[in-house]
Specification:
- By secondary structure, the protein is α+β, with helices and mostly antiparallel strands.
- Helices cover 64% and strands 8% of the residues.
- The chain has 19 helices and six strands.
- Strands 1, 2, 3, 4, 5 and 6 form a six-stranded antiparallel beta sheet that branches.
- The radius of gyration is 42 Å and the shape is elongated.
- The two termini are 77 Å apart.
- About 1% of the residues have low confidence.
């Protein structure tokens, strides 16, 4: 009982320590990620906010409410970065190794982080379902209020403004103090594109009427162009009379009802940005049957139109199922009779002119059906956009909280595997996974917009893809697998391309038993003999295609590699610093040229005959052989120098000291 209580106390201490490590890192990483996301919003919309006549306090309120709306986007990235840094710091300081050595499994170590993240996910769901809704409504209310309180501020100097239906306005510049615009051009298309009215004025302003139902365009010192005679089509070649009146002052009233948009949070609350989960579900349930019924009705109308254009039946036959069945049976009977009748038995003969006329009529009917179907498609797209937006917002209230849990699992597992603290490697890994997450999320969103996949699958696609990745990483981290250790792959590729590092021999200040220089000289001479044999042998000096049959000569390379290791181990106990430095210059030789090169010549010939697969492998062997040949030449030079130094050291050892 006492042992169990002690274990519980130890685990509580460990949990508190991990939380004390995680929470400051989370606060820091979340603040940085939040700041970056908000700055991205500002960089994107800075032109629409600054220079519009808004007060500094209103700009701060818009930025504040916008920052609240970006919390769901920045929270998963902050959790990923903080969990990765926490476990990475524990691994780098060997604290994670100590905890595992004491018998604590990885899932028990990260349990306090996961529980805290689950609590954060629940809080994020509540925030999205309540607080963020009010923040979004107030943000867009401020933006729309500012927009319609000073509509002239929406006109950017030097850019055509098309925000008013039927009008296009241009101003060369604008006085920021008075709001007066200079060198204006107005294209009035409210009466149609065939009857435009073009106005050029020296200055002007655009203000909202007190009734909030009209925009008043006040122009000074200008001239207008408009047709006197109204046109209904543009195929006539007759000249159209026009007039060019000059004016000192002109007022144009443009219908523009802004009452529902002026400081009305109730209007925005009825949209998807102002609905909670329950309200979204009610809206979805009310729109779904309408969408299904209209699609069925459109399909029946278009099908009836095709039947009418092809068979000449009534377009209202689809409303009565019995009438439609009878018409279909009659058409089938007529089609069978026509199919089996012969040309000479036909009672009706059509001339080429009649055939062309019938073809033209059929084409016109098909075009009318096509235009009607395109109108139905536009109407259906508008209805489906509303349904899809509500459905996406419903799922989004769950996807971000779940992504927080998945990112905590991925970050903790990767931190335990990589074991790198600081902010360098964790930031790179976090950005990589976050970019992958949003690429998959954008792909799913585009697919659901095209109705290629269901809405729920498009919204949950990123979480569905990354959740198995998190489980796999957690399993590998719990098994202490080195499959994801970057250093393992670096060492492997260095060996693969012939970079085997350098030999490290440390100089000993205190030598108990000095090296046997006579035995060392014999070993060096033997190694020199084997080195010369390898350099002159067919494995390293023959042609590249003969290498397939020389796999057995790799044993000589293994023997030489062992001899060099023995020489280094036997001669390292010497007071000669020069000899120790020469031992460090001996290359690290592999035991084989390649593990895939067979020792038996017949298997080598078979492998070399497997064209074209053997060609890249042969080029790889040629590169490795070139590196090894250079290492063998270096080995021979260093062995000669070691032999001279061993002889000198042996002479110093046997020379009696002077009296």
């Amino acid at each position: 009982m006492t042992n169990k209580l002690a274990i519980v106390d130890v685990l509580k201490i460990v949990d508190k320590y991990i939380l004390r490590t995680f929470i400051p890192l989370f606060v820091m990483s979340f603040a940085v990620c939040w700041f970056i996301v908000v700055m991205q919003f500002l960089w994107r919309y800075i032109d629409e906010l600054v220079g519009k006549g808004l007060s500094g306090f209103m700009l701060l309120k818009i930025i504040f409410y916008a920052a609240l709306s970006f919390i769901p986007m920045s929270l998963p990235l902050g959790i990923l970065l903080a969990s990765l840094m926490t476990l990475g710091n524990l691994g780098e300081r060997l604290e994670l190794l100590a905890l595992k050595a004491s018998g604590i499994r990885l899932y028990r170590i990260i349990r306090p982080i996961m529980l805290l993240v689950v609590a954060m996910a629940c809080g994020l769901f509540y925030f999205q379902n309540d607080l963020m809704i009010r923040a979004q409504v107030r943000m867009w209310t401020l933006v729309i209020t500012a927009k319609y309180a000073a509509p002239e501020m929406e006109i950017t100097p030097g850019v055509f403004y098309t925000g008013i239906p039927g009008y296009s306005l241009y101003a060369k510049d604008r006085d920021s103090g008075t709001g007066l615009m200079h060198r204006m051009m107005v294209y009035d298309m409210s009466r149609g594109y065939l009857n435009p009215r073009i106005i050029r004025a020296d200055s002007g302003r655009l203000v909202m009427d007190k009734s909030k139902k009209f925009l008043v365009l006040k122009l000074y010192q200008g001239q207008s162009f408009e047709n006197i005679q109204t046109q209904s089509y543009n195929t006539s070649t007759d000249a159209v009379p026009y007039m060019l009146p000059h004016f000192d002052y002109s007022e144009t009233f443009i219908p523009f009802d802004a009452n529902i948009k002026m400081q009305d949070e109730g209007e925005l609350s009825s949209m998807y940005v102002g609905k909670n989960l329950h309200q979204l579900q009610q809206s979805i349930d009310s729109i779904r049957p309408i969408l299904d019924s209209t699609r069925l009705s459109y399909a029946q109308v278009v099908g009836a139109g095709l039947m009418e254009s092809h068979y000449g039946t009534s377009s209202y036959a689809y409303q009565d199922s019995a009438t439609r069945v009878q018409a279909q049976a009659r058409l089938t009977h007529l089609e069978q009779q026509t199919r089996h009748s012969k040309g000479e038995d036909a009672s009706l003969t059509l001339t080429p002119q009649d055939s062309l006329q019938a073809f033209a009529m059929a084409r016109d009917k098909a075009d009318r059906v096509k235009e009607e179907a395109s109108l139905y498609i536009d109407t259906d797209d508008a209805q489906f956009y509303q349904f899809r937006t509500l459905h996406q917002e419903w799922h989004r209230k769950f996807t971000f909280p779940v992504s927080c849990i998945i990112f905590a699992l991925i970050g903790s597992s990767l931190g335990a595997i990589v074991r790198r603290g600081g902010i360098g490697m964790p930031i790179i890994i976090s950005i990589f996974f976050f970019v992958v997450y949003f690429i998959i999320d954008s792909f799913g969103t585009n697919m659901l917009r095209n109705e290629s996949i269901p809405i729920w699958l498009g919204m949950w696609l990123s979480n569905i893809v990354l959740f198995p990745v998190g489980i796999f990483l957690a399993y590998k981290a719990n098994q202490d697998s080195s499959a994801l250790n970057v250093e393992i792959y670096v060492i492997f590729f260095r060996k693969l391309f012939g970079f085997r590092g350098v030999r490290k021999v440390e100089y000993q200040e205190l030598i108990i038993e000095e090296a046997d220089y006579k035995a060392g000289a014999l070993a060096v001479a033997q190694a020199l003999k084997h080195t010369d044999a390898l350099l002159q042998g067919s494995l390293f000096s023959g042609r590249i295609w003969s290498i397939w049959t020389r796999g057995a000569e790799q044993k000589q390379l293994a023997t030489l590699s062992k001899e060099l290791d023995d020489i280094t181990e036997s001669l390292r106990h010497t007071p000669s610093r020069l000899l120790v430095s020469k031992l460090c210059d001996l290359p690290l030789l592999p035991t084989r040229l390649s593990p895939f090169l067979p020792e038996e010549p017949r298997w080598g010939r078979i492998l070399g005959a497997l064209l074209p697969l053997s060609l890249p492998f042969g080029l790889f062997l040629s590169r490795v052989r070139t590196h090894l040949r250079a290492d063998l030449r270096t080995t021979r030079t260093v062995l000669l120098q070691i032999a001279d130094e061993v002889t000198a050291a042996d002479e110093r050892t046997h020379t009696p000291p002077l009296k």
